[in-house]
Amino acid sequence: MLPRPDGPLIWAHAERPETARALSALAARMQSQRPEISALLTWPSDGPDPALDPRGCLAQPLPPDSASDAQSFAAHWRPDLALWTGQRLHPALLSRLSDAGSRLMLLGARNEPWQTPAPLWVPDSAAATLALFDRIFAEDDAAVRRLRRAGLPDQHLRRAGPLTETTPPLDCDPDLHEEMAQLLSGRPVWLAARARAEEAPDILQAHRRATRLAHRLILLLVPATREDGAAIEALARDSDLRVARWENGEMPDENCQVLLTEDASELGLWYRLAPVAFLGGSLRPGHGGEDPLEAAAHGAALLYGPNVGRHLSSYTRLVEAGAARIVRDFDTLATAISQLVAPDRAAAMAHAGWDVVSQGAALTDEVIALAFEWLDGGGTSGEAA
Fold first, then answer.
1. What is the rounded CA–CA span in Å between residue 324 and residue 332?
2. What tens digit of pLDDT does each residue of 279-288 get?
3. Which domains does the chain have, with CATH numbers?
4. pTM over cut 0.90
């Protein structure tokens, strides 16, 4: 095992890759406010490596739930606080940590059966294991009811929605934003954010088609990298669209149809200017898509391609809320843009996305506040939420 750092330690166990990203972001926020805190991120030993940047967390797979492994883990890491996710419990380890004084918090409990790694002839220990948690945050009312049927008291339960990765809005120069907002005033605007070079032909063709219905429509085209930017610039220059190059100091005039940037370094500005955003890395396989919650946090209606496996759960939530819409090629992208340049349509989607982001941010804030209270020695395990 990795060495244990000195000082307070938060241990976070991720059931799935998307949960690992959310937990690492949560730990990073805690550490930004309390630099003395260390964080350990684990995932099931028989499951896939989350394959992510742990953002300053120590990271390792969790060993099987045997008595000896539980004793070894608890004695070595001695976490002050444990954040558990997933329906598969580790009774031996959680019991050992509870006996040692670690505070236990379960996040994102779902209305699904609980699993414990024990032979079929051993009595089910799920209810007893759930009772070890000082606080359980459930995704919905059905999950709360399941927990009540397991004998959990209401003061330990909190309905709070699913745990999602939260990202603060990107930085933006307010003076530059005001200048650009005035310059683009009255023009329909859409954004292609973190676009890859292989997606650019579809994006440019979709824009060309959409301008037939909205003649003053302008595309803010933001490549994912400088390399993508160089390739996209060549494609844009060869098109019959009128292009302005941001890094060359070219400002969009009335005749400009595409404002092309070099990379995503000023994406916070472009998110704030565009009511509709297509998220790159999604039309072609191999990239896995971009985090849609980042865009939703800036108040944009979201369009995306079918290849978003890295953030599938976040896209699913946004689609279910009416905040995002899938496109598959330049034709469906052009149709979606033409429909969403109507301000009321884009605004309704953006509002739905903001509701999703706000729910996730509220849960994160509540978890952090409770964690700090416990680390400071406040609260009791039976205290109401």
1. 14
2. 999 999 999 9
3. 9-163 (3.40.50.11720), 174-356 (3.40.50.2000)
4. no
